[in-house]
Amino acid sequence: MAALNRLLRTRGLLSSSPFTSTACRSYSSPAAESERKFSFGGSIGNNKIPRKDPSERDVQWVFLGCPGVGKGTYASRLSNLLGVPHIATGDLVRDELSSKGPLSQKLAAIVNQGKLVSDEIIISLLSKRLEAQEAKGESGFILDGFPRTIRQAEILEGVTDVDLVVNLKLREDILVEKCLGRRICNQCGKNFNIANINVKAENGNPGIYMAPLPPPAGCESKLITRADDTEEVVKQRLRIYNELSQPVEGFYRSRGMLMEFDLPGGIPESWPKLLHALNLDQEEKQSVAA
Protein backbone atom coordinates (compact mmCIF):
# COMPACT_ATOMS: atom_id res chain seq x y z
CA MET A 1 0.00 0.00 0.00
CA ALA A 2 2.77 2.45 0.87
CA ALA A 3 4.28 2.05 -2.60
CA LEU A 4 0.87 2.62 -4.19
CA ASN A 5 0.25 5.74 -2.15
CA ARG A 6 3.66 7.11 -3.20
CA LEU A 7 2.77 6.41 -6.86
CA LEU A 8 -0.47 8.36 -6.62
CA ARG A 9 1.16 11.21 -4.73
CA THR A 10 3.82 11.62 -7.39
CA ARG A 11 1.01 12.00 -9.95
CA GLY A 12 -0.90 14.38 -7.67
CA LEU A 13 -3.88 12.04 -7.57
CA LEU A 14 -4.03 10.79 -4.00
CA SER A 15 -7.18 11.99 -2.31
CA SER A 16 -8.28 11.43 1.27
CA SER A 17 -9.58 8.02 0.13
CA PRO A 18 -6.60 6.00 -1.16
CA PHE A 19 -6.88 2.88 -3.25
CA THR A 20 -7.27 -0.26 -1.19
CA SER A 21 -5.33 -3.49 -1.36
CA THR A 22 -8.27 -5.19 -3.12
CA ALA A 23 -7.43 -3.38 -6.34
CA CYS A 24 -3.66 -3.72 -6.08
CA ARG A 25 -1.74 -6.69 -7.47
CA SER A 26 1.97 -6.83 -8.04
CA TYR A 27 3.34 -7.20 -11.56
CA SER A 28 4.00 -10.73 -12.80
CA SER A 29 7.10 -12.11 -14.39
CA PRO A 30 7.20 -11.85 -18.23
CA ALA A 31 6.25 -15.51 -18.57
CA ALA A 32 3.42 -15.24 -16.06
CA GLU A 33 2.29 -11.98 -17.68
CA SER A 34 2.04 -13.68 -21.07
CA GLU A 35 -0.02 -16.49 -19.55
CA ARG A 36 -2.26 -13.99 -17.73
CA LYS A 37 -3.12 -12.14 -20.91
CA PHE A 38 -4.45 -15.30 -22.49
CA SER A 39 -6.37 -16.71 -19.51
CA PHE A 40 -9.86 -15.81 -20.79
CA GLY A 41 -11.95 -17.02 -23.72
CA GLY A 42 -12.23 -15.40 -27.13
CA SER A 43 -9.55 -14.04 -29.42
CA ILE A 44 -7.36 -11.01 -29.84
CA GLY A 45 -6.08 -10.38 -33.34
CA ASN A 46 -5.09 -13.77 -34.77
CA ASN A 47 -4.59 -15.39 -31.36
CA LYS A 48 -7.20 -17.86 -30.12
CA ILE A 49 -7.57 -17.55 -26.37
CA PRO A 50 -7.97 -20.76 -24.34
CA ARG A 51 -10.95 -20.81 -22.00
CA LYS A 52 -10.64 -20.47 -18.25
CA ASP A 53 -12.99 -22.39 -15.98
CA PRO A 54 -15.83 -20.05 -14.95
CA SER A 55 -15.42 -21.05 -11.29
CA GLU A 56 -11.89 -19.64 -11.40
CA ARG A 57 -12.76 -16.53 -13.40
CA ASP A 58 -11.89 -13.65 -11.06
CA VAL A 59 -11.77 -11.27 -14.01
CA GLN A 60 -10.45 -7.73 -14.12
CA TRP A 61 -11.85 -6.35 -17.35
CA VAL A 62 -12.23 -2.89 -18.87
CA PHE A 63 -15.01 -1.82 -21.25
CA LEU A 64 -14.22 0.97 -23.71
CA GLY A 65 -16.51 2.72 -26.17
CA CYS A 66 -18.10 6.05 -27.03
CA PRO A 67 -20.73 7.55 -24.72
CA GLY A 68 -24.06 5.82 -25.33
CA VAL A 69 -22.61 2.72 -27.01
CA GLY A 70 -23.96 0.41 -24.30
CA LYS A 71 -20.92 -0.24 -22.10
CA GLY A 72 -23.07 -0.25 -18.98
CA THR A 73 -25.63 -2.66 -20.40
CA TYR A 74 -23.16 -5.31 -21.51
CA ALA A 75 -20.76 -4.83 -18.59
CA SER A 76 -23.65 -5.24 -16.16
CA ARG A 77 -24.83 -8.45 -17.83
CA LEU A 78 -21.32 -9.90 -17.79
CA SER A 79 -20.94 -8.82 -14.18
CA ASN A 80 -24.02 -10.86 -13.25
CA LEU A 81 -22.84 -13.80 -15.33
CA LEU A 82 -19.30 -13.92 -13.96
CA GLY A 83 -20.11 -12.87 -10.40
CA VAL A 84 -17.79 -9.85 -10.23
CA PRO A 85 -18.64 -6.21 -9.43
CA HIS A 86 -19.57 -3.85 -12.24
CA ILE A 87 -17.96 -0.48 -11.54
CA ALA A 88 -19.34 2.26 -13.79
CA THR A 89 -17.61 5.59 -13.28
CA GLY A 90 -20.62 7.31 -14.88
CA ASP A 91 -22.81 5.88 -12.11
CA LEU A 92 -20.26 6.96 -9.50
CA VAL A 93 -20.48 10.52 -10.85
CA ARG A 94 -24.30 10.47 -10.92
CA ASP A 95 -24.45 9.09 -7.38
CA GLU A 96 -22.21 11.91 -6.20
CA LEU A 97 -24.39 14.45 -8.05
CA SER A 98 -27.53 13.19 -6.32
CA SER A 99 -25.83 13.09 -2.91
CA LYS A 100 -25.60 16.89 -2.70
CA GLY A 101 -22.11 16.40 -1.32
CA PRO A 102 -19.24 18.87 -1.61
CA LEU A 103 -18.42 17.77 -5.16
CA SER A 104 -21.95 17.83 -6.53
CA GLN A 105 -22.04 21.48 -7.66
CA LYS A 106 -18.67 21.26 -9.38
CA LEU A 107 -19.64 18.01 -11.09
CA ALA A 108 -22.97 19.44 -12.28
CA ALA A 109 -21.22 22.27 -14.11
CA ILE A 110 -18.77 19.86 -15.77
CA VAL A 111 -21.37 17.31 -16.85
CA ASN A 112 -23.91 19.85 -18.15
CA GLN A 113 -21.24 21.34 -20.43
CA GLY A 114 -20.37 17.93 -21.86
CA LYS A 115 -16.85 18.01 -20.45
CA LEU A 116 -14.91 15.06 -19.05
CA VAL A 117 -14.59 14.82 -15.28
CA SER A 118 -11.00 15.32 -14.11
CA ASP A 119 -8.70 12.43 -13.25
CA GLU A 120 -8.50 13.65 -9.65
CA ILE A 121 -12.26 13.45 -9.14
CA ILE A 122 -12.63 10.07 -10.88
CA ILE A 123 -9.74 8.60 -8.87
CA SER A 124 -11.32 9.83 -5.64
CA LEU A 125 -14.74 8.35 -6.49
CA LEU A 126 -13.22 5.09 -7.69
CA SER A 127 -11.16 4.83 -4.51
CA LYS A 128 -14.29 5.10 -2.38
CA ARG A 129 -16.01 2.42 -4.47
CA LEU A 130 -13.08 0.02 -4.12
CA GLU A 131 -13.02 0.55 -0.36
CA ALA A 132 -16.70 -0.39 -0.19
CA GLN A 133 -16.00 -3.44 -2.38
CA GLU A 134 -13.23 -4.64 -0.08
CA ALA A 135 -15.45 -4.20 2.98
CA LYS A 136 -18.02 -6.52 1.39
CA GLY A 137 -15.40 -9.14 0.52
CA GLU A 138 -15.80 -8.71 -3.24
CA SER A 139 -12.96 -9.26 -5.72
CA GLY A 140 -12.43 -8.72 -9.43
CA PHE A 141 -14.20 -6.06 -11.45
CA ILE A 142 -15.56 -4.96 -14.79
CA LEU A 143 -14.67 -1.29 -15.21
CA ASP A 144 -17.00 0.79 -17.35
CA GLY A 145 -16.03 4.34 -18.30
CA PHE A 146 -12.45 4.24 -17.02
CA PRO A 147 -9.79 4.73 -18.26
CA ARG A 148 -10.65 7.41 -20.82
CA THR A 149 -7.19 8.85 -21.37
CA ILE A 150 -3.64 7.53 -21.71
CA ARG A 151 -2.82 9.12 -18.36
CA GLN A 152 -5.67 7.26 -16.67
CA ALA A 153 -4.64 4.00 -18.38
CA GLU A 154 -1.09 4.43 -17.07
CA ILE A 155 -2.40 5.07 -13.55
CA LEU A 156 -4.60 1.98 -13.73
CA GLU A 157 -1.73 -0.13 -15.07
CA GLY A 158 0.38 1.00 -12.14
CA VAL A 159 -2.09 -0.19 -9.50
CA THR A 160 -3.79 -3.31 -10.89
CA ASP A 161 -3.61 -5.95 -13.63
CA VAL A 162 -6.21 -5.75 -16.39
CA ASP A 163 -6.96 -9.08 -18.06
CA LEU A 164 -8.98 -7.92 -21.07
CA VAL A 165 -10.13 -4.68 -22.69
CA VAL A 166 -13.34 -4.89 -24.71
CA ASN A 167 -13.86 -2.01 -27.15
CA LEU A 168 -17.52 -1.69 -28.18
CA LYS A 169 -18.04 0.13 -31.48
CA LEU A 170 -21.07 1.71 -33.15
CA ARG A 171 -21.59 4.33 -35.89
CA GLU A 172 -21.71 7.92 -34.62
CA ASP A 173 -25.10 8.80 -36.16
CA ILE A 174 -26.65 5.84 -34.36
CA LEU A 175 -24.88 6.77 -31.11
CA VAL A 176 -26.41 10.24 -31.24
CA GLU A 177 -29.89 8.83 -31.85
CA LYS A 178 -29.46 6.36 -28.99
CA CYS A 179 -28.33 9.04 -26.55
CA LEU A 180 -31.24 11.33 -27.45
CA GLY A 181 -33.64 8.45 -26.76
CA ARG A 182 -32.37 7.71 -23.26
CA ARG A 183 -34.80 8.16 -20.37
CA ILE A 184 -34.52 7.55 -16.63
CA CYS A 185 -37.34 6.80 -14.19
CA ASN A 186 -37.07 9.45 -11.49
CA GLN A 187 -38.56 7.05 -8.97
CA CYS A 188 -36.80 3.70 -9.44
CA GLY A 189 -33.71 5.06 -11.22
CA LYS A 190 -33.80 2.49 -14.03
CA ASN A 191 -32.71 3.38 -17.57
CA PHE A 192 -34.88 3.03 -20.68
CA ASN A 193 -34.67 4.11 -24.31
CA ILE A 194 -37.51 5.29 -26.52
CA ALA A 195 -35.45 5.47 -29.73
CA ASN A 196 -36.56 3.09 -32.48
CA ILE A 197 -33.47 2.76 -34.67
CA ASN A 198 -33.88 1.08 -38.04
CA VAL A 199 -31.08 2.01 -40.44
CA LYS A 200 -31.05 0.35 -43.84
CA ALA A 201 -27.83 -1.00 -45.33
CA GLU A 202 -26.31 1.42 -47.84
CA ASN A 203 -22.96 2.68 -49.12
CA GLY A 204 -21.21 -0.40 -47.77
CA ASN A 205 -22.56 0.11 -44.25
CA PRO A 206 -24.58 -2.76 -42.77
CA GLY A 207 -28.16 -2.22 -41.68
CA ILE A 208 -28.75 -1.93 -37.95
CA TYR A 209 -31.97 -2.38 -36.01
CA MET A 210 -32.30 -1.45 -32.35
CA ALA A 211 -35.73 -1.77 -30.83
CA PRO A 212 -36.84 0.64 -28.10
CA LEU A 213 -36.39 -0.39 -24.48
CA PRO A 214 -39.71 0.95 -23.14
CA PRO A 215 -40.49 1.31 -19.43
CA PRO A 216 -43.17 -0.70 -17.64
CA ALA A 217 -46.51 1.00 -17.10
CA GLY A 218 -45.55 2.11 -13.60
CA CYS A 219 -42.60 4.14 -14.88
CA GLU A 220 -44.14 5.70 -18.01
CA SER A 221 -45.26 8.92 -16.30
CA LYS A 222 -42.03 9.30 -14.34
CA LEU A 223 -39.50 9.36 -17.18
CA ILE A 224 -36.96 12.18 -17.32
CA THR A 225 -34.18 13.05 -19.74
CA ARG A 226 -30.63 13.42 -18.48
CA ALA A 227 -29.50 17.05 -18.48
CA ASP A 228 -26.53 16.17 -20.70
CA ASP A 229 -28.59 14.28 -23.30
CA THR A 230 -29.10 17.14 -25.74
CA GLU A 231 -27.85 16.91 -29.33
CA GLU A 232 -25.27 19.65 -28.80
CA VAL A 233 -23.86 18.11 -25.62
CA VAL A 234 -23.93 14.55 -27.02
CA LYS A 235 -21.95 15.57 -30.10
CA GLN A 236 -19.51 17.49 -27.91
CA ARG A 237 -19.01 14.43 -25.71
CA LEU A 238 -18.34 12.27 -28.77
CA ARG A 239 -15.89 14.83 -30.11
CA ILE A 240 -14.01 14.90 -26.80
CA TYR A 241 -14.00 11.11 -26.70
CA ASN A 242 -12.53 10.87 -30.17
CA GLU A 243 -9.84 13.41 -29.38
CA LEU A 244 -8.76 12.16 -25.96
CA SER A 245 -9.91 8.59 -25.43
CA GLN A 246 -9.34 6.72 -28.67
CA PRO A 247 -5.55 6.67 -28.10
CA VAL A 248 -6.35 4.41 -25.14
CA GLU A 249 -7.28 1.77 -27.71
CA GLY A 250 -3.75 1.94 -29.09
CA PHE A 251 -2.34 1.75 -25.58
CA TYR A 252 -4.06 -1.58 -24.93
CA ARG A 253 -3.67 -2.83 -28.50
CA SER A 254 0.10 -2.51 -28.18
CA ARG A 255 -0.10 -4.72 -25.09
CA GLY A 256 -2.11 -7.40 -26.88
CA MET A 257 -5.11 -6.90 -24.60
CA LEU A 258 -7.69 -5.20 -26.85
CA MET A 259 -10.71 -7.05 -28.25
CA GLU A 260 -12.74 -4.92 -30.69
CA PHE A 261 -16.43 -5.72 -31.01
CA ASP A 262 -18.73 -4.06 -33.56
CA LEU A 263 -22.28 -4.10 -32.25
CA PRO A 264 -24.49 -5.69 -34.95
CA GLY A 265 -27.75 -4.34 -33.49
CA GLY A 266 -29.64 -4.20 -30.22
CA ILE A 267 -29.29 -6.50 -27.24
CA PRO A 268 -31.02 -9.55 -28.85
CA GLU A 269 -28.57 -9.46 -31.77
CA SER A 270 -25.44 -8.32 -29.95
CA TRP A 271 -25.51 -10.19 -26.64
CA PRO A 272 -25.13 -13.78 -27.96
CA LYS A 273 -22.43 -12.65 -30.39
CA LEU A 274 -20.52 -10.91 -27.60
CA LEU A 275 -20.70 -14.09 -25.50
CA HIS A 276 -19.40 -16.04 -28.49
CA ALA A 277 -16.53 -13.56 -28.94
CA LEU A 278 -15.65 -14.03 -25.26
CA ASN A 279 -15.90 -17.82 -25.72
CA LEU A 280 -18.45 -18.26 -22.96
CA ASP A 281 -20.11 -21.66 -23.28
CA GLN A 282 -23.75 -22.44 -24.07
CA GLU A 283 -24.70 -23.18 -20.44
CA GLU A 284 -23.47 -19.76 -19.40
CA LYS A 285 -25.32 -18.14 -22.31
CA GLN A 286 -28.58 -19.82 -21.25
CA SER A 287 -28.14 -18.71 -17.63
CA VAL A 288 -28.28 -15.05 -18.69
CA ALA A 289 -30.51 -15.28 -21.76
CA ALA A 290 -33.42 -13.49 -20.06
UniProtKB/TrEMBL annotation:
It is an enzyme of class 2 (transferase). Its EC number is 2.7.4.3. It catalyses: AMP + ATP = 2 ADP. It holds the Pfam family ADK. InterPro entries: Adenyl_kin_sub, Adenylat/UMP-CMP_kin, Adenylat_kinase_CS, P-loop_NTPase. One of its GO terms (molecular function) is AMP kinase activity. PROSITE patterns: ADENYLATE_KINASE (PS00113), PROKAR_LIPOPROTEIN (PS51257). Signal peptide: none annotated. The keyword Disulfide bond does not apply. Keywords: Kinase, Nucleotide-binding, Transferase. PANTHER family: NUCLEOTIDE KINASE. NCBIfam families: adk. HAMAP family: Adenylate_kinase_Adk. Belongs to the adenylate kinase family. This is adenylate kinase. It comes from Papaver somniferum.
